[in-house]
Write a structure and sequence with these properties.
With 142 residues, the protein is mostly helical. α1 packs across α2.
Length: 142
């Protein structure tokens, strides 16, 4: 009886985790689509502001296709709109993202400290640490 209850609890937890994952994926897809549509609309309005000498249907079609492709490419690069939408719809996502950034910054700082302690200029440059930065500045906690 106890094992049956534990198994049903685990199954419920698995189902909940699966639903959250599906929900998050759906939110991300919608947010990315919205960002792309927003950028496409922005490009269309920018094109209107400069005017056009060629008002043919073919030119209009070409510009629409190009705006669509550019907007998709720009939204894949990320303008930050998608992230803002996701943060509003799923606050837990924002918290997890903040924690991931903190961990990455901490690891980056630890790697920098190790490289500077070794005093290996080639490795420092490969890691992307340029300029004259003291060990004291890197190890300083903000």
């Amino acid at each position: 009886m106890v094992k049956s209850i534990q198994n049903s609890h685990l199954n419920s937890a698995d189902k909940l985790a699966h639903l959250r994952k599906k929900h998050r994926a759906a939110i991300e897809k919608v947010a990315e689509s919205f960002e792309s549509q927003f950028v496409q609309h922005m490009l269309k309005e920018m094109r209107k502001s400069i005017g056009s000498q060629d008002e043919s249907a073919a030119s209009d079609f070409y510009n629409t296709v190009m705006d669509t492709e550019r907007s998709e490419a720009m939204s894949k690069q990320g303008l930050g709109i998608k992230e803002m939408i996701i943060e509003q719809l799923d606050p837990r996502w924002a918290q997890e993202r903040s924690q991931e950034r903190s961990r990455a910054a901490r690891l980056n700082r630890e790697n920098a400290i190790q490289l500077f302690q070794k005093n290996d200029d080639n490795e420092i440059k490969k890691a992307g640490f340029f300029g004259k930065v003291s060990l004291k500045e890197i190890s300083h906690e903000n």
